[in-house]
Amino acid sequence: MARKLHRAHDEAQHRPEASRPDHNRRARVEVEFDEQTVLGALFGQFDTNLVQIENRLGVYISARGNRVLIEGPEDAVARARDVLKAMHQRLLTGQDMDAGAVEALIAMSNEPTLDGIITGTPGAPPPILIRTRKKTIAPRSVTQIEYMKALVRDDVIFALGPAGTGKTYLAVAQAVAQLISGSVQRLILSRPAVEAGERLGFLPGDMKEKVDPYLRPLYDALYDCMPPEQVERRMASGEIEIAPIAFMRGRTLADAFVILDEAQNTTPAQMKMFLTRFGQNSRMVICGDPKQVDLPGGTNASGLADAVQRLEGVDGIGVVRFSSADVVRHPIVGRIVEAYEGKDA
Questions:
Q1: Nearest residue to 41 (alpha-carbon basis) of 30, 53, 32, 49
Q2: pLDDT in 10s for each residue of the chain, 345 residues
Q3: C-alpha dihedral sign at 6, 7, 8, 14
Q4: How far is CA 328 from the centre of its chain?
Q5: Count of CB atoms within 10 A of residue 32's CB?
Q6: What are phi and psi of 282, to 5 degrees?
Q7: With left for phi above 0 and alpha for psi between -120 and 50, is residue 111 left, alpha or beta?
Q8: Cβ–Cβ under 8 Å, residues 52 and 102
Q9: Order of strands, sheet of 186-191, starting from the edge strand that comes earlier in the sequence
Q10: Which of 90, 168, 188, 330 lies at a 20 to 30 A Cα distance from 212?
Q11: Pairing verdict, β 186-191 and 256-260
């Protein structure tokens, strides 16, 4: 059944041609999808995905069977077409399509990297994907594309930027993929046990129970990429280890994928200690937000900033910087980050 035209579309149709800017020349494009089994997920319940694209890009979309008609400004129609094709391709590879994924593709549709990298256009480079036991993960921003390339290219990767940009999540997903494939033998996840402004006092329990609250975000990412029983089994065997950074001292981490989260809360001495644990056939990812330092005593001598300053440009070391535009949580998170960054600037 064809969907009704929106009021905005009706007004645009009757606006005098001379009053429309040249860059808003109208276009009408039809897209046909051969694989119809995913059309329900493509359109969304009550066509919510199509409405989201309409509202964000200022186009009108109507669907009849496996054919979708897009009308509106020429550049917006082209973007909407690319977004729909990218959504269809992702669904065919078994990925979920929620509002966040649609929003990410809309944002990326304004970049020249969308075609080929995301949709898998014939003759173009293969899509950038991370495959784990539970899901297949594709980049949701242009910077994530750069980051996912670095995760398979560089020995040490610094991922800098605000919360919600996927720094830690993508690193954990890549680590899980390499552990499953056997290219590394261990997955080591670490964080500095620094209180973020709160005084937690003397926590009850053994050492694991005391530090687990600090490491919970790493557990969450891990369970999102692997079935719980596999996580528990690999943790019991020592293939997966989650520990505070203090536990890294004196070790050589060979054949391992090592992730340090919240690295802005390390001191320069801790960061040097951590980086020099690097062993044969290993990869290290250091994630953090340089603007969220919670070191005690009011010091801003962050080991993350110090390490990036010293090591950026060194062969085998990659630095990827995220911004509020790369936030892939709810869109309001990006606006909150922008507001705080503007105030701090």
A1: 49
A2: 445 444 334 434 433 333 334 455 888 889 898 888 888 899 988 889 999 999 888 999 998 888 899 999 888 888 898 889 888 888 887 777 888 788 878 877 765 444 444 444 444 444 577 888 777 787 878 888 899 999 999 999 999 998 888 899 999 999 999 999 899 999 999 888 765 444 445 555 555 566 667 677 788 888 888 888 999 999 999 999 988 888 888 888 899 999 999 999 999 999 999 999 999 999 999 999 988 887 776 555 889 999 999 999 999 999 999 988 787 766 676 677 778 766 554
A3: positive
A4: 6
A5: 8
A6: -125, 165
A7: beta
A8: yes
A9: 240-244, 186-191, 256-260, 283-288, 156-160, 317-321
A10: 330
A11: parallel
Query: Residue length, the chain?
Result: 345
Rg (CA), the chain: 23
- Whether residue 273 contacts residue 303, with contact meaning beta carbons closer than 8 Å, is answered with no
Structure tokens at 204: 């009850």
DSSP code for 293:
-
Cβ of 173: how many Cβ atoms within 10 Å?
Answer: 25
Q: Give dist(CA 257, CA 131) in Å, integer.
A: 16
| pTM value > 0.90 | no
Closest CA to 126 of 138, 134, 141: 138
Backbone φ/ψ region at 203: left (φ over 0), alpha (ψ -120 to 50), beta = beta
Q: Which residues pair with 67 in a beta bridge?
A: 32, 64
The DSSP code for 201 is -
